[in-house]
Design brief:
The protein contains five helices and 49 strands. By secondary structure, it is mostly beta strands.
Length: about 675
């Protein structure tokens, strides 16, 4: 789904006022293809038709689209009921009586068999089109109103004086039953079929489209529709219309006297964005887990789209996981329809847990826009090896249905290290066959082994007693069980591949010669060899972004470094690091504060007491405006406005330990101090 900026939309709107096209090209081109595929969930051979249609789209990206039209006797009304009046009308209009069949650009009077689709599509793609078509659908997620603009530009003359413009809404990723789904394993998830590009509705007054004219060369036609997206379509057993999985196709067709609208001259998929009339609206569009780690520290990647009318310059994002709260502050420039991706690390116990991410503040205004996802921490097995790599051996005893089994081994960044399957299906009613596979994995990696069974019942039981074992190069079993091949649809395991333990110790960092933007660091290193890299990680407590200071190692095994990238009147945390054989070792953390610049009366008058405190921290200073409290990992945990020379911070809810406080005055002064809570 393409994104455009608000500024670009304004420019396009200005262009429109001058009768120029916003979206459509004026350059002559060949026809695009709309394949209407008549199908049904009880149709045995329909999945093989889906494979052909998918291949046509894959061979012609951006030029060919399939529409799965569920109608007729093979399309039941049990859940998920994918029937609708538009599908039934189109099916009846072409007199469809067998499935799967289809029409390619409605270039034939009746539906044709799946074996003819590819040739017919290629024939259409090689013909010059009389017109081009393009447009945009803007969806308000609150009202579910889609504002759809479609443009048609005629690069030639149509054979008839009046054409028809049709806009269809399709939906992907609808899970449900499907007879014969093994013929299309790419769309099988567990024991369900993932129905794609399903026709849900035609938004026009007529299912055959709305008339447009004139149809002569050089004509630009613009049509705007407002369409209320239903919550559900289908009666009975309707299916939810998920606005994150819908898209719109538009096409232009001619009409032959006394027949349904045909042929289709060309078609397109409309660009689509979500938008709102509210000035500030940060929408959490996705929450995904990043990479694979053999630690409890996991990263989630949060995508936030600005669907308001104002540019976003700041956001506070709060993630809740297993009773813990993680906060990230973002500053920058995010225009309308822009997307900002943020990575939030968090500690995750073994298991799978829901995570809720909420934008609580944007541009200084309170918000409550949330999204949900999940995060998983698998248990891992430690494997210590000699050298730079290890060869794993996989013993896989398949059951009868080896054609249902696949596996893969991936690195922490998702790189595929090895894979296998599907295997052959055995002829007997039940049986087994052993496959031995080898995969080479690198040292200092967290590798993931995943095995899948298309039918969702593992490799066991009624069809043969199967299993899988993953072994090291010495034949030791890392995981797996010869007595247990029952894992359902999928199973995953992690292996932490480590080199032989290295004796490396990094000391605490000492800080010298600090001024308003400069500091020098020194730490000790205990290691017999010479490291790959040394340096320091320096981070302001109020910012998630670290400063990496590359260091040197002197003859006395001291790590030295300096930086001039610091900000005045700020508290920093710093720790030394050394990279040895690809592994990073850290020293303990030290805290320091840079000098202040131009803090005026605030610095001279500031008092914090009692420090340490038990329940209340008193603050006195000239012209206070606000105070903010941060914990030692840089998360803001408290903030309050002040108007005067005195303030009190209630510390009853804080645990014992050290905290940072940021104090602002009305003359622009900013001071950072530390205080402790002790009871």
């Amino acid at each position: 789904m393409k994104k455009i900026t608000f500024a670009l939309m304004a420019l396009l709107a200005f262009s429109f006022s001058l009768k120029a096209q916003q979206y459509v090209s004026t350059v002559p081109s060949n026809r695009n293809v709309i394949l209407e595929e008549f199908t049904g969930r009880n149709c045995t051979w329909c999945p093989s038709g889906h494979v052909i249609a998918n291949q046509i789209m894959a061979n012609n990206p951006g030029r060919a689209w399939a529409i799965n039209v569920h109608a007729g006797g093979f399309s039941p009304t049990t859940f998920p009921n994918l029937n609708n009046p538009a599908s039934q009308a189109i099916c009846s209009g072409f007199g469809v009586s067998s499935f799967p069949t289809g029409v390619v650009n409605r270039s034939t009077a009746s539906a044709i068999g799946r074996d003819q689709w590819t040739n017919q599509a290629n024939n259409q793609l090689n013909q010059a089109s009389e017109c081009n078509i393009a447009g945009m659908a803007i969806i308000n997620p609150d009202t579910r109103i889609a504002t759809i603009t479609v443009e048609v530009y005629y690069t030639g003359n149509s054979a008839v004086d009046e054409n028809y413009l049709t806009v269809a809404m399709l939906q992907d990723s609808i899970l449900g039953s499907q007879t014969g789904m093994n013929d299309n394993p790419a769309q099988v998830i567990g024991n369900q079929y993932c129905h794609m590009h399903v026709l849900r509705d035609i938004i026009n007054t007529s299912v055959w489209g709305d008339p447009i004219s004139p149809t002569t060369q050089g004509t630009l036609i613009t049509r705007t529709f407002e369409y209320a997206i239903p919550e559900s379509i289908g009666n009975p057993n309707g299916v939810e219309v998920d606005i994150d999985n819908i898209f719109f196709l538009a096409w232009v067709s001619e009409r032959f006297q006394g027949t349904p609208t045909r042929p289709i001259l060309t078609g397109c998929e409309l660009d689509m964005v979500q938008g709102s009339n509210e000035p500030i609206y940060p929408s959490v569009t996705s929450i995904t887990q990043n990479g694979t780690t053999c630690t409890h520290t996991k990263d989630i990647e949060v995508s936030i789209q600005n669907i308001g009318t104002e540019t976003l310059n700041s956001m506070t994002i709060v993630a809740e996981l297993n009773g813990e709260t993680y906060t990230t502050e973002w500053e920058g420039e995010l225009p309308t329809f822009g997307v900002q991706k943020l990575v939030m690390p968090m500690e995750v116990p073994f298991g799978t847990y829901p995570v809720v991410v909420t934008v609580t503040e944007a541009n200084g205004v309170s918000q409550s826009h949330s999204g949900t996802g999940s995060i998983t921490c698998l248990e891992w097995e430690d494997l210590e090896i000699e050298g730079d790599e290890e060869e794993l051996r996989i013993d896989l005893m398949q059951d009868k249905f080896g054609n249902h089994i696949t596996w893969e081994v991936t690195a922490s960044d998702g790189t595929l290290l090895g894979s296998g399957g599907p295997y052959n299906m055995l002829a007997a009613g039940s049986g087994t066959q052993l496959h031995i596979e080898y995969v080479t994995v690198p040292v200092n990696e967290c590798v993931k082994f995943t095995i899948n069974d298309q039918m969702g019942n593992g490799i066991c039981c009624s069809y043969g007693h199967g299993y899988y074992l993953v072994k090291d190069s010495h034949g030791n079993v890392i995981f797996g069980d010869e007595d247990d091949g029952e894992f359902g649809a999928t199973a995953s395991h992690l292996i932490s591949v480590k080199g032989q333990q290295t004796n490396v110790e990094v000391g605490e960092t000492e800080v010298f010669n600090v001024d308003y933007n400069h500091a020098e660091f020194m730490s000790s290193l205990t290691y017999d060899g010479y490291p790959d890299e040394v340096g320091f990680v320096c981070q302001k407590v109020t910012s998630p972004d670290p400063i990496i200071v590359h260091g040197i190692l002197n003859e006395f095994k001291k790590i030295l470094g300096m930086t001039d990238e610091l900000e005045p009147s700020s508290i920093y945390m710093v720790r030394a690091y050394a990279i040895v054989n690809g592994q990073t070792f850290y020293g303990s953390e030290s805290t320091f504060q840079t000098e202040t610049v131009g803090v005026g009366e605030l610095e001279n008058s500031l008092k914090l007491y009692p420090n340490p405190t038990a329940n209340v921290l008193n603050i006195e200073g000239e012209g206070l405006t606000s105070v903010e409290v941060y914990n030692t990992v840089g998360q803001r945990i408290m903030a309050q406005e002040v108007n005067g020379n005195k303030a009190q911070v209630n510390t009853e809810s804080l645990n014992n330990g050290m905290y940072f406080i940021r104090i602002l005055a009305n003359d622009g002064s900013v001071l950072n101090r530390t205080f402790s809570v002790a009871r």
